[in-house]
Amino acid sequence: MRTGGTATIDRHGLDLLIAALAEAGFDTKGPVVREGAIMPGAIRTSADLPVGVRDAQGPGHYRLEHSGDDRLFDWAVGPGSWNAEFFPPSQELWRSTSTGDITSHARPGPGSTRPLAIVGARPCELAALAVLDRVLLDGAVTDPDYAARRADAFVMVAECGTPAATCFCTSMGTGPAATGGFDLALTELDGGGQRYVVRVGSDRGAAFLEGVPHAGAVPTDLTARDRRLASAAAAIVRTVNSDRVAGLLADSIDHPHWDEIAERCLACGNCTMVCPTCFCSDVSDTTDLTGEVRRDRTWSSCFDLDHSYLHGGSVRVSVSSRYRQWLTHKLSTWWDQFDTSGCVGCGRCVAWCPVGIDLTEEVAVITADDGRAGPASGPLPATESESVSESGSAGGTP
After folding, report:
1. Distance CA 47, CA 206 (A)
2. How wide is the angle at C-alpha 303 spanned by C-alphas 395 and 238, nearest 5°?
3. Which of 158, 242, 240 is nearest to 198 (CA)?
4. What are phi and psi of 208, to 5 degrees?
5. What residues does each domain of the chain span?
6. Cβ proximity of 351 and 246 under 8 Å
7. 292-309 b/e with 16+ CB inside 10 Å = b?
């Protein structure tokens, strides 16, 4: 077997693959059912995966359902993405004495932690990691902690055959098929027997596949894979005209619809917390009575009032300016900073918004005046928009 090759395995073969990764020293994780949602977690066998579980998603809605079958990957995405494994929500960076001597350094070095093996990441999540790599690995300044956690990570992606109603990965070119960035790619075939088409994306993936029972993929297997992925793509109804939206949003900072969104938006930050590409963070120092200083980094959100705090106060005081910052950065000015979109179309922000604000619908309204990105949903309120100076730069920084 070599890179670019295809094969088929059954569930027993998948179990052997998972076991081989663990035996090779990987911290093996995959999607598991926890607290009513599908979340990343430790796995030892395929039985730890969401067996016979589906998800029902919509704006402000997420529920798990039991299908009664034994399929492993018959769901879309849950609230937790793999970015947290490489860029933790909360992390101690270092401690020092009152004299400035570093007493501990939490940043992992090469070989200090087991490399991660992910079994069952979705193609959109793989695309999100590629976006974070551009920012935190290949940007002007490399984040050493992120780099250490990403080093030697093994990724087995599960191509998506059952998208959620909130998905729009086809618009962003991130699914339902995986196009690269993986060691192995699985596609769960229709019918009984729990068979999977496996595509090899790296020499390391080929070596692990060689170590388990497998058969060559015949044309009918590949046709079945193509059919399943085509059916998934056809089921995705939400769209974003990504080719045109970037420029249109940049020219729409005074659109009155921002104020209409703000009347519904709670500024809770849920959309940023579940987004697999958000990387904004705060760094805080605390000192105890002994003089020991501790520095921590925690995830932050552009919906926080203090996120845009400068001398004298916050730049983005209103909810409308904060929502505008988030959406414009994701779909427009991210291109200026990182030469890619900051959105992968996973739909998490739609499902996990408490009031069901739908990114795809809001973009369609705001860009409809151009006549190319979608129809408006009705007359827009004639409210006074915020000044350009209040919005500040649309580009976010960590």
Report:
1. 24
2. 80
3. 158
4. -70, -40
5. 6-87+96-235, 242-391
6. no
7. ebbebbebbbbbbeebbe
The backbone region for 62, taken as left when phi is positive above 0, alpha when psi lies in -120 to 50, beta otherwise, is beta
Q: What is the pTM of this model?
A: 0.86
pLDDT in tens, 170-216: 999 998 999 999 999 999 998 766 899 999 999 999 999 999 999 99
DSSP letter string, 177-236: S--SS-SEEEEEPSSSS-EEEEEE-SHHHHHHHHTS--EEPPHHHHHHHHHHHHHHHHH-
DSSP string, 316-384: --SHHHHHHHHHHIIIIIHHHHHSS-S-----HHHHT-TT---HHHHHHHHTGGGTSS---SSPPP--P
Whether the ω angle into residue 108 lies within 30 degrees of 0, i.e. cis, is: no
Q: Which helix (H) or strand (E) holds 100?
A: none
- Is residue 84 a contact partner of residue 40, using CB atoms and an 8 Å limit? yes
pLDDT digits (tens, 9 = 90+) for 221-265: 999 999 999 999 999 999 998 778 888 888 888 899 999 999 999
Measured distance CA(4)–CA(327) in Å, rounded? 37
CA atoms of 345 and 77, how far apart (whole Å):
11
Q: Give the C-alpha separation, 51 to 37, whole Å.
A: 13
- Find, among 212, 272, 277, the residue nearest to 8 by Cα: 212
Neighbours of 45 (CB within 10 A): 14
CA triplet 66, 73, 235: central angle to 5 degrees?
90
Task: Please provide residue 209's backbone torsions phi and psi, each rounded to the nearest 5 degrees.
Answer: -65, -35
Read off the tokens for 270: 């849920």
Cα–Cα distance measured from residue 363 to residue 326, given in angstroms and rounded to the nearest whole number:
12
DSSP secondary structure string, 57-87? EETTEEEEEE-SS--SS-----S--THHHHS
What are the structure tokens assigned to 257, written together?
A: 């619809």
| Nearest to 152, CA basis, from 193, 111, 196 | 111
